[in-house]
């Protein structure tokens, strides 16, 4: 049961229904992509999985390796192995990347155990090199004054350092030029393997040229309307979201 | 001897404990001529000091509380119930070995890091009103540096002491400086000879250790021409049920080309009134820098200042204030420009938690006839909860042309998005909050000596523990 599983999820923000009965399973070791038009509820799904306090689950379940995710505090979910790469990461003024990641890793250790500093920095520098980040970055405050590309790279750096079981990447490709996109994709591809399940949320097919998914899901109006292999992304690119919307309509009718 | 279990009263927080002590010398409660004479008799004051004290008392009694601008909370201080002088009658000690075990334990409990204990060779520590431990680092002594308690200073070095004592902060500066003049005891006297650069920071630890006992230490530091010295003070106080008054006076004199850095990290328990007057006098090309960190207390009123008396003198105040539930940090800085080409810099950061309140009061004065003076003032406030409060009262008077002033102020909050982001990386809400707060003060804390910045970080974490959930 090594999987991240979403079952008939319903989510509201205020009095607005955003996710309406979404089901999805990402086994560890696989990369799944969710594509969908703006406003389809993709980012909401990501935030709900991570436990954002503004969203309210009215129905349904999310489990990670069989454990009830929705019953956990956001930090508990993170320590148990769920990672969210934010579409708009927060700035943390005055807190350096090195200190932040150190605190995050320290939080995963049993009480009384101290993170080994030399090992930590060796690992940090190795991952930064992979992502083409200069070492001077470690002393910059998290996301403060970062360009869009720098923010996304920092998200992937955190992913690499925290080594979660499941990673949800929320529009990690948005705002990236092609070179930055390639670097980010390289980072994710390096981590790919039997120990990591990935859920890529994206608006465009472009990212999927570099991180080739095992499965593609199309999300429209708070639901998955179509699932398939990697070719589905190409088909979608060609035929557009209207085609997917029509499919959703058909589905609603046939139900 | 009492059994140890009775002798030590340890509360939840570090610093919230005290030892039962037999106070050999006790002036009783309340304040009158009699109290002053008692203190002067016990301390064997020279006549001029007794005189000084009596003038202090008169001024204190005449001056009203400054409640027309300051907190009305001052009215709750019952001056008749305070003990103004208390001494154990222990002579100042020279070596660490001679220090009584129970007092060593107190220092241990205060969490003075091992590293700092190695520095203890240069420490003047005060336990209650008298210094129980003082050991002047040999090298410092050889350089001709005088580092003694104020009582010893005024008796043994009157020629230097008298020249500056009460000159930077006159008796009548404010009601509490007058009170200090009347009942002062303890504190340090430092004189650094011309050209001597004291390598290690000189340190003092002191704490309040008796119910209703006000602590009124008095420190005077004189850096002679071209000399340099750093002084550090840090204190924690035990928690008592009734209010405790702390009213210190610190005077600094930096002669031509001298540099003084005065660092304070204070963590008062929540019932302490901390009403302190600190000011420095910077002569030509001299530099005075106050680094001031205020945590805890019920009400702190403290505005370290520099009088920039000589051409090209520089003054700086870097301060951090943390006001938790029920606490009011009323802090700031004063920069009095009195010569051409003088520069001053004020950076103040405050954090308000729960119902805590932080007030910034700044006074920058540049008169019309001066040329090429500069001031930079930055004050940033961070509010943690919806009930937290901050106020800023900058008073900047810059007259004349060719003087430059820059003032920036900001109020920010730790956003829920920021906390969520950090939680998503595995930090608990409290850890996230405390990391944000540490980030907020980070650029200032970097200017603190290493051991203090570590201590400060720990203090902030302790303070943040109860702020969420």
Describe this structure in a few short sentences.
The complex is a heterodimer of chains A (255) and B (469). Chain A has helices at 42-50, 74-79, 97-106, 117-130, 148-162, 178-191, 231-254, and strands at residues 3-13, 16-27, 31-35, 56-64, 67-68, 82-85, 166-170, 197-202, 215-220, 223-228. Chain A is α/β, with parallel strands linked by helices.
Would you write up a description of this structure?
The complex is a heterodimer of chains A (255) and B (469). Chain A is of the alpha/beta class. Chain A has a single domain (3-92, 147-254), classed as Rossmann fold (3-Layer(aba) Sandwich), CATH 3.40.50. Chain A has helices at 42-50, 74-79, 97-106, 117-130, 148-162, 178-191, 231-254, and strands at residues 3-13, 16-27, 31-35, 56-64, 67-68, 82-85, 166-170, 197-202, 215-220, 223-228. Chain A has a 6-stranded mixed β-sheet with strand order 6-7-8-3-9-10, with helices on both faces. Chain A has a 4-stranded antiparallel β-sheet with strand order 2-1-4-5, with helices on one face. In chain A, helix 3 runs parallel beside helix 5 and helix 5 (148-162) runs parallel beside helix 6. Chain A is globular. The mean pLDDT of chain A is 92. Chain B is an alpha/beta fold and 469 residues long. Chain B has a domain at 421-469. Helices cover 24% and strands 36% of the residues of chain B. Chain B is built from 12 helices and 25 strands. In chain B, helix 3 packs antiparallel against helix 9 and helix 10 packs across helix 11 (429-445). Chain B starts with a helix and ends in a 5-residue tail after the last helix.
What labels would you give this structure?
heterodimer; A: 255 residues; alpha/beta; Rossmann fold; six-stranded mixed β-sheet; four-stranded antiparallel β-sheet; 7 helices; 10 strands; 36% helix; globular; B: 469 residues; eleven-stranded mixed β-sheet; ten-stranded mixed β-sheet; 12 helices; 25 strands; disordered N terminus
